[in-house]
Amino acid sequence: MIRTRFTETFGIEAPIVQGGMMFVGRAELAAAVSEAGGLGTITALTQPTPQALREEIARARDLTDKPFAVNLTILPSITPPPYDEYRQAILDSGVTIVETAGSNPAPHLPAFHDNGIKVIHKCTSVRHAVKAQSLGVDAISIDGFECAGHPGEDDIPGLVLIPAAAREIEIPMIASGGFADGRGLVAALALGADGINMGTRFVATVESPVHHAVKEHIVASSELDTELILRPLNNTSRVASNSVSREVVRILDAGGEFADVRDLVAGARGRTVWETGDVEAGIWTVGTTQGLVHDIPTASALVSRIVAEAEELIRGRLAETLVADASALIEAAR
Fold it and tell me: pLDDT digit string (tens) for 94-147?
């Protein structure tokens, strides 16, 4: 196994985290990833009520005795969910790891830390990561432009963002956006991260609680098959390219306002995609990494494969290259 600061801090075996995905981060997937040695994540707001979240956490505990996280994404909204009540559900359930995202985690940190909960904060920029570190979070998840969902507004891909963040971040940090295999894990480690966070790759697994047709669509798609919507509104989101997302782009590029696309981007339509497999029913998030997804394995097989691929790269090709370079230098010196 590959050991890093992240695996040591959070008590897991493999430096691989399943992202907290709306409508996807449920007990069966989170437990399967954790059982495989990674860190699975339940998405709090997928559950309709705080009590439902308590029940979902209990369901995950019936499936695994290994650590798993709960994602609490805090976003500005006209009618925000009762975040404090969801936070209390997390506290009541004895969860030991929380991923926060979407906004400043400061209001929630005292309650989490007072109850012995370690907090991973997800950021899309170095400045936000530095701020979160100063607030006392326990780890950073740095999210590059390749990611599904909200990549921020800086448009910085992981190849630049990860080492830029690593230069400033002293606590454990995982890399998000664009990761799907062992090559990505090795690259993330080389760039200064302590592991990887994957969303799209885990959607296309056996335990993922979405319709099989969605998984097959991801396998059949390429890295070109996404759209960036809501960019004129400074609320960019990367989603699957379909008739709905292309219409949203067309309307806003022509000068439309949010009211003109509100019904098209409604979350209820996106949920229909996950549940029915109709990939044209609404907006649904997916990353460019779908171009690297070619099968639908179990979570256990996927985690094992990624770790094995990474170890083989480190011990094999990269080591051989180093030896070859050293031999060439010795020969040149003769």
Answer: 999 999 999 999 999 999 999 999 999 999 999 999 999 999 999 999 999 999
Which of helix, strand or coil describes residue 166? helix
Residue 109 and residue 135 in contact, taking contact as beta carbons nearer than 8 Å: yes
Q: Give tens-digit pLDDT for 264-298.
A: 999 999 999 999 999 999 999 999 999 999 999 99
- Residue 44 falls in which region: left (phi positive, over 0), alpha (psi -120 to 50) or beta: alpha
Q: Which one-letter amino acid corresponds to residue 277?
A: G
Q: What is the CATH number of domain 5-198?
A: 3.20.20.70
Please check whether residue 229 is in contact with residue 49, taking contact to mean a CB–CB distance below 8 angstroms. no
Segments making up each domain of the chain, as ranges: 5-198, 213-288
Pick the closest to residue 17 from 1, 39, 2, 35 (CA basis).
39
- Burial letters for 191-203: b for 16+ Cβ neighbours within 10 Å, e otherwise? bbbbbbbbbbbbb
Buried b / exposed e along 282-291 (16+ C-beta atoms within 10 A)? bbbbbbbbbb
DSSP 8-state secondary structure symbol assigned to residue 284: -
Which three-class secondary structure state does DSSP give residue 99? strand
CA dist 45 and 99 (Å) reads: 12
